[in-house]
């Protein structure tokens, strides 16, 4: 199966997007400022839809047009690079990463600035981009999760060497946590016995998941659905479908303000006071309950991560400056998500029927280690969020 969306089995009659319109790598957006300004003014004009703050509304629409134009060019370049990668695995991986990140940015921007766009068009394209980015993310997630779990097992069993000795940390100290098997204690021998089998079990399960995700990626990028997404994104390289003139649009900064309010409300619902105490063990205790309880506990943190990412994308539209505090908070929440999903993978492997007790023990220790990583990420996030005045100034 071809990797190109333009080589679409069953996609006969659907023309491939004109990739010649994509600006060269590193070049500024090709859309002329005058054309963008005229389009924005046309959207702002008419029946007084933007009666309040017309000038600022036009400026926001111009910035949004230029941003989506640039991201659409990156998306189409990534699609072309993936199709041209052939047997070059590294090039295919990098192209898929670029496609995934760009699709998320376009989709998040369409969500935040939906009042300034045609809602039907924006919702439809956002749904399709979410499907594509989610499909592309599965293979990367399976590979990263396998590496993370194998590194942690090697560290916990005392077989890790060099820089790849895992990522376990103690909140506030940066040291690896002691999970009842430090030094030459009695737990170390039992863990060493089961670690090799646990690693083999995890490798079988996650390699199978990665293989299936790779097949799903190839199928998705060779489908008529992907072809239609590419055609829709190609429209953004030349024009931005405006919102209907009927009805009043919100103030120009209303879209970003709404994203900010949702983020602040979600953070306010987090137990930051408990997360501010190292070894509060909430993440570990609840994680040892059931899979549903673990997901219920982690879900508010995952929601904050998503809302923070949407807010950062909105700030990218309004200005090129990046806030390092928000970037660090996003990285910490990424660590939280990775540790949470790794712990769930270890727990799922431990539920495999008829595994040896030593293997189950090793997987249990691994699960506890990853839940400690969840706790460490929460501790780090509350320190960043509550301890930095720059965060409040940026929001």
Automatic annotation (TrEMBL):
Residues 22-41 have a biased composition (Low complexity). Gene3D superfamilies: CHAD domain. Pfam families: CHAD. Residues 1-41 are annotated as: Disordered. It comes from the Bacteria. Residues 57-390 form the CHAD domain. This is CHAD domain-containing protein. It comes from Streptomyces katsurahamanus. The lineage of its organism: Bacteria, Bacillati, Actinomycetota, Actinomycetes, Kitasatosporales.
């Amino acid at each position: 199966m071809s990797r190109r969306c333009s080589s679409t089995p069953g996609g006969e009659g659907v023309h491939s997007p004109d990739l010649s319109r994509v600006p060269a790598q590193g070049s500024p957006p090709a859309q002329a400022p005058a054309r963008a300004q005229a389009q924005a003014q046309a959207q702002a004009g008419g029946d007084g839809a933007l009666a309040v703050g017309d000038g600022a509304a036009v400026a926001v629409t111009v910035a949004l047009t230029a941003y989506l134009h640039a991201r659409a060019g990156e998306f189409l370049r990534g699609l072309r690079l993936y199709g041209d990668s052939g047997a070059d695995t590294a090039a295919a991986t990098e192209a898929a990463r670029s496609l995934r990140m760009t699709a998320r940015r376009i989709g998040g921007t369409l969500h935040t600035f939906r009042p300034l766009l045609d809602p039907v068009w924006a919702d439809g394209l956002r749904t399709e981009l979410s499907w594509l980015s989610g499909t592309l993310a599965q293979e990367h997630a399976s590979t990263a999760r396998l590496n993370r779990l194998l590194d942690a097992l090697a560290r916990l069993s005392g077989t890790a060497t060099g820089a790849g000795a895992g990522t376990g940390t103690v909140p506030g100290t940066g040291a690896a946590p002691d999970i009842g098997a430090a030094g030459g204690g009695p737990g170390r021998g039992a863990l060493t016995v089961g670690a090799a089998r646990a690693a083999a079990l995890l490798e079988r399960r996650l390699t199978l998941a990665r293989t299936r995700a790779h097949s799903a990626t190839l199928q998705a990028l060779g489908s008529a659905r992907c072809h239609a997404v590419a055609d829709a994104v190609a429209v953004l390289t030349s024009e931005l479908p405006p919102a209907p003139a009927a009805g009043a649009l919100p103030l120009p900064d209303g879209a970003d303000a709404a994203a900010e309010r949702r983020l602040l409300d979600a953070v306010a619902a987090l137990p930051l006071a408990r997360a501010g105490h190292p070894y509060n063990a909430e993440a570990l205790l609840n994680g040892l309950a059931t899979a549903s309880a673990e997901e219920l506990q982690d879900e508010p943190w995952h929601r904050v991560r998503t809302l923070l990412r949407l807010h950062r994308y909105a700030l990218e539209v309004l200005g090129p400056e990046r806030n390092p505090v928000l970037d660090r908070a996003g990285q910490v929440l990424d660590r939280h998500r990775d540790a949470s999903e790794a712990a769930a993978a270890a727990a799922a492997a431990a539920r495999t029927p008829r595994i040896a007790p030593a293997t189950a023990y090793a997987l249990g220790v691994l699960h506890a280690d990853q839940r400690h990583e969840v706790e460490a990420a929460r501790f780090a996030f509350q320190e960043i969020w509550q301890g930095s005045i720059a965060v409040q100034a940026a929001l």
